[in-house]
Amino acid sequence: MDQQALVTSAAGDDPADGLRAVRALRDLAERLETLQVERARRLGWSWQEIAAALGVSRQAVHKKHNRRI
């Protein structure tokens, strides 16, 4: 589903389409977060710096991403 279709579905009247679009956007956001956390770690960012940028605790971001990196 392309971006415009996601936006149209998410804002549309059909809850089934809207919820599928929400899930697709959530999945995309998760993939982008992982990509950027990995990039930040490779560039030497601390877990605290990443957490601050994401607006979460250091422990939360470390727990979520440490095993992937």
Automatic annotation (TrEMBL):
<protein>
    <submittedName>
        <fullName>Helix-turn-helix domain-containing protein</fullName>
    </submittedName>
</protein>
<dbReference type="Pfam" id="PF13384">
    <property type="entry name" value="HTH_23"/>
</dbReference>
